[in-house]
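Researcher: Good morning. I'm working through a list of sequences from a screen, and I'd like to move beyond sequence-only analysis. For each chain I'm collecting a predicted structure so we can compare shapes side by side. This is the next one on the list. No need for commentary yet; just the structure.
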Amino acid sequence: MHDEPEAPTPPTQKGRERRQQIVDAAADLIFDRGVAEVSLDDIRDATGVSKSQLYHYFSDKSDLLRAVIECQRERVLSTHRPTFESLVSWDDLQRWRDMIVTHQAERSCRSGCPLGSLANGLAELDDAARLQLRDAFSRWGRIIADGLTRMVESEVLRVDTDPQELAVSVLASLQGGLLMAETARDTRPLEIALDSAIAHVKSFRALN
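Model: Good morning. Structure tokens for this chain:
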């Protein structure tokens, strides 16, 4: 399935914008309903494109899903990157935690992480998608690790702190908390998971 050739990137600005419109609509539908519940016909209905137009931009559904993964990766990382690119204090981490909880509360905890949802739906069905998602989570982890590294350099965290391992711990806590909050339709599991993750990071606090 994932060995099919990808459709080329449209050469014109209008074509690229149309392609992105399709990807955005597909990403939103799949996030709301799940990969298995969204067909190409659903995406055509949402965007108003014809079948021939859809296949002009994407060789098949797998090709479109690869574009959706890329889209969701950029959406997610753009949300979290500002915090960790300027991470200097515990207050910054607390604001990040509050931002996530508030966002899920506003959604009534319907749907969790866009990347996590894609991983649940695709990891065992499409190995190319699994590898693409692995890369997305790795990039996300590096963003967190880079922020924690700055806290080590500014002597907020101890010099023996391993930012990479802490980043995995934080990201795993976030993913688990989002999943449990979605299942419970309650932000409390997410709050507990994030508070525990931050407490774990604080256990490496530098003793100045």
